[in-house]
Design brief:
single chain; 4 helices; mainly alpha
Length: 107
Amino acid sequence: MVYGYDEFVLSVEPVLTRHGCDATGDCHGGGIRGTFELSPPGAKSARFDFDQAVLQLSPTSPSASPLLTEPLATSAGGTPHAFKPFASTSDPDYQAILRWVLAGVPQ
């Protein structure tokens, strides 16, 4: 698996930031919850966030990666997670993450 850093910075990092995933103390920054840590808003490190995001990917089942399933509504196939920003797999932000994940999978 080879995931594109530049594409992550352009397409995925903005989604994570827009949805407040790096919110200090609440989600994946500051007082992290679970295994997915992101750099805090006041000290962004795209490289750190990229490395952490890659750890949330499943090489054997990319579409079932926690990076995709945890923020997805349970009714749309998501898995347990406190915050569900994506109501369906057709959400444009969900699609941006999915494209990045699938682009790293060998054809």
